[in-house]
Amino acid sequence: MLFAAASCNKDILDENPQSITTPSFLGTPQGIEAGVTGVYSGLRQIHGNDAAFFATEAGTDLWTNGISASSGLNDYSPNDLTPVNASSTSFIWTTCYQQINNANGVLQYSGTVQGVDPARLKQLVAETKLLRAQYYFVLVRHFGDVPLMLSFIDAPTKDISRAPLADVYNSIIADLTDAMNNIADKPAQPGRVTRATALHLLAKVYLERATSTAKQSDDYANAAKYAKELIDNQSRYGVGLESDPATVFTEGNENGKEVLFNAQFNGDASFSRIDGFTFGGENVAAFNFRSRYDLLPNMTRDVNYGRPFARHSLTHYLEDAYILRDANGNSLESPTQWRTNDSRYSKWFTTVYLVNSPGSNGGSASAVRGDTSIWYPGRELPAAVLTRITNRRPVTYRVFQPSQYTTEFFPTLNKFDSRNRTSFQGFSTRPNIIYRLAETYLIAAEAYLYLGNRTQARDYINVVRRRAAAAGRTTQMEITENQVTIDFILDERARELCGEMARWYDLKRTGKLLERVKLYNPPLIRLATGVYGSNAAANIKDYHVLRPIPQTEIDRTGGKITQNTGY
Fold first, then answer.
1. Does the N-terminal peptide bond of residue 523 adopt cis geometry, omega within 30 degrees of 0?
2. I need a surface site. Which of 57, 199, 206, 276 has the fewest CB within 10 A?
3. Rounded-to-integer distance, Cα 249 and Cα 342, Å
């Protein structure tokens, strides 16, 4: 039609493109609003796609191999985790620097834009600085020294090199401090960052820097200060802990009072797919931790149970972390009823699947829809119990004891379940929570531990543990100050934050990555079916506390960007 029109009317070639933006567009009221929204959009890629979970949860003490791997991040494979094959880390580098430059453009043009209310402009600048800090925080944790780009680049350049870690952290803290002093206390709409976000992130940044080569003597004091300010002023910021752990991840509550920062998604495929190619904007959180229920008798894929990507299988350490123990590590649970004190396991893990397709996968037509089909009891069962299940009528059901977990079959983390989809194949549009208030308490506890105040650390931990207690078990869940160690805090972070794209950072920050991977991420038992386990414990090396910088980035600068040691 365009060619036909061109042949009839020469004037159509006088273009006035409306879909092509130039940098100067950022200097308009519409442009600066769109620019800030664009900076937010990168959060979907950093906190939502497959690679995001491999980069932050795989290869830790919590998750071992599922049926799919990604660039060696799951088991530190020397053949896969290389600068040339860095698909699961190059997306971090590329996305972060794209959005940092977009943020730089917003900040540059914010000084000249006309027609925007000054208060609104101040808010937009503060949000942009906080987001720029977040992207840099992601970069330094993965790569260490990284290029520090604080000016808008609108033309190609090769003049790029790595800045010292101390300089990058100083820039992050400067951005967050400025944002904290100029940003709104509460969000104007879901997904917007606030002063509460800034306080939490500042505390987290100081805690992270305290164990880095850029550490400062007052890092722990500052981490405690900012975490405490947020905790002590929850009503001001409109935040608070949910009363029930299950409520935190109830579908539809992703912008609830406990949430401090999240990545928003929507159902318009044009925002993440062009000509059939995916550009990282999809939310696959609901599928990554789900086992292959669809391969078992009387089961088929459905929206309720979701797409079973089975990327990550929980370790025995994670499952057993919910068993209440005394200070000496002895179980305080009944031998036949484990995990009855800490309610988080029963609320955040699916251990029972119900028949949804009688007769499927070699099942029995006598199976009753809604009856038990699969059970993960979380413990080894006595022979008498197994016999009773085998003889059950009208049909038996499949039992997987911990010794029988494989890369396909394991209890499912259900924090991200997404049932409001039109089909079982469709990606989720749920926002993904990045930071929430329960973590603020644990940040404060860790900071106070290192400041020598175990009593204060204990009190903050007990707030989280009391919320997690099963009915009538609050006293049993409380700990004493003598139990407060960095290992206990890591255990508590595992119980509370598992799957929330934080674990690799936690182990790296505390210097526990190698120790805990070797202890808790051994290979699964090789089965006759050919199921394989993880080689993480065997492969991990000291230099894996940093990721390889993509070779393409080194080549583009003629070697001015250097590679991390070991790669």
1. no
2. 276
3. 17
